[in-house]
Design a protein that fits this description.
Elements: H1 2-38, H2 44-57, H3 59-74, H4 78-95, H5 99-117, H6 124-164, H7 166-182, H8 187-194, H9 198-218, H10 220-232, H11 240-245, H12 251-267, H13 287-297, H14 301-313, H15 318-322, H16 326-329, H17 335-362
Length: 374
């Protein structure tokens, strides 16, 4: 059981997140950069950056990148890996808004079916791609739509509930996604699969930052600046061996995420209008912050779809709904937007975890060496 959990829930999800990072996420950064530079003047280099980012947004490209990431993480053979390009593109297109989850499920099955025949025949170059592609595309045609609908429905439920109850859901989303970030599973893949944007995406960013910045500050006595970089800009997952030894060390960043989550939703109204995968990245390479910022200037298609969904639920006129585009969702961020991003992502997690860390050490819940990285 542990073998399959690792293969399908840890390795495959991590591979999917890397595929998203290497396509949609990086494309968003490049596109936003080109878009902002074009404001300075019409320049072929700036236009190239904008166009390059647009290519990365293509659903075929994103689906293929996710499937290849999944296959690579699973260690499949070359022909299976290359065949997953078609499978991923098909599943992502047919899965629509919930495409990432459809890609995850279908790419795993197609990869395993491809591996059953890979290198087993003298005509492997024909048999392996045929089995992988036919099975993957067939599964996509039959099930991708429904897998996508299920993921989209859950994601929309979470986002709608967060809009209606920002305090309670701010705590819930922040804590749950933050915990997922530190566990050996991919919080980024979860957020991408559910299409978590809007206020819920902002709460998810807050929870992830509380874990990463929180552990970096909490363990500064043991790990110094190397720990700040490896955990604050890398991953809080490095602390899992220490959490297993002394679970109480995890209380501090979890409490911090329970505080910063509702502050993000209720006080600053911080939203994630960038790529949903950014919601689960926290301060890893500052991707969470880049996602929020890019969402101000260049909202993602997921953000547009969510805005349209809200407008439909509110009974807006057809002309008003049709007017909702990426251009209409852009904002020029003011002081409070930047201040909120800084406070939620960096200042509050650092201060809260520093203070609680002092108390925990004073009362012996955390002892010297409990947070030392191996």
């Amino acid at each position: 059981m542990n073998k399959y959990v690792k293969r399908y829930l840890i390795d495959a999800m991590s591979g999917m997140a890397q595929g998203l990072f290497a396509s949609l996420l990086v494309g968003t950064i490049i596109r936003t950069l080109g878009q902002q530079l074009l404001r300075l003047g019409d320049n072929s280099v700036f236009q190239f950056l904008f166009d390059a980012g647009n290519f990365c947004w293509d659903a075929h490209v994103v689906g293929a990148a996710m499937a290849v990431g999944i296959g690579f993480a699973m260690g499949v053979h070359g022909l299976v890996l290359f065949s997953l390009i078609t499978v991923g593109a098909t599943a992502n297109i047919l899965g629509k808004a919930g495409g990432p989850l459809a890609v995850l499920v279908i790419a795993i099955i197609a990869a395993e079916l491809g591996m059953l025949v890979s290198r087993k025949t003298k005509v492997d170059i024909l048999v392996t791609p045929i089995v992988t592609i036919i099975s993957g595309v067939l599964l996509s045609v039959l099930f991708a739509k429904y897998i996508g609908m299920a993921a989209d429905s859950v994601g929309k439920l979470i986002m709608l509930t967060t809009e209606l109850h920002p305090f309670v859901m701010g705590i819930f989303v922040s804590v749950v996604v933050g915990i997922a970030l530190t566990l050996p599973i991919s919080s980024a893949a979860i957020c991408a699969a559910l299409g978590l944007t809007g206020l819920a995406g902002g709460a998810a960013v807050a929870g992830c930052c509380a874990q990463m910045v929180g552990f970096a500050v909490l363990s500064f006595k043991e790990n110094r600046w190397g720990g700040v970089v490896s955990q604050g800009l890398g991953t809080s997952m490095l602390q899992m061996p220490n959490i297993i030894k002394n679970p109480r060390v995890w209380i501090v960043p979890i409490v911090a995420s329970a505080i910063t989550g509702p502050i993000a939703t209720c006080v600053f109204g911080m939203t994630m209008n960038g790529a949903a995968v950014s919601s689960g990245m926290g301060t890893c390479g500052l991707v969470g912050q880049i996602g929020v910022i890019s969402g101000w200037y260049s909202p993602s298609q997921q953000a547009v779809e969510w805005a349209v969904h809200k407008a439909e639920k509110a009974g807006f006129a057809a002309e008003q709904i049709a007017a909702i585009t990426q251009d209409s969702l852009r904002i020029n961020p003011g002081f409070m937007d930047w201040f909120g991003l800084l406070m939620v992502c960096f200042v509050l997690p650092a201060v809260l975890c520093w203070f609680m860390g002092k108390l925990f050490r004073r009362y012996g819940w955390i002892k010297d060496g409990d947070l030392t990285l191996a």
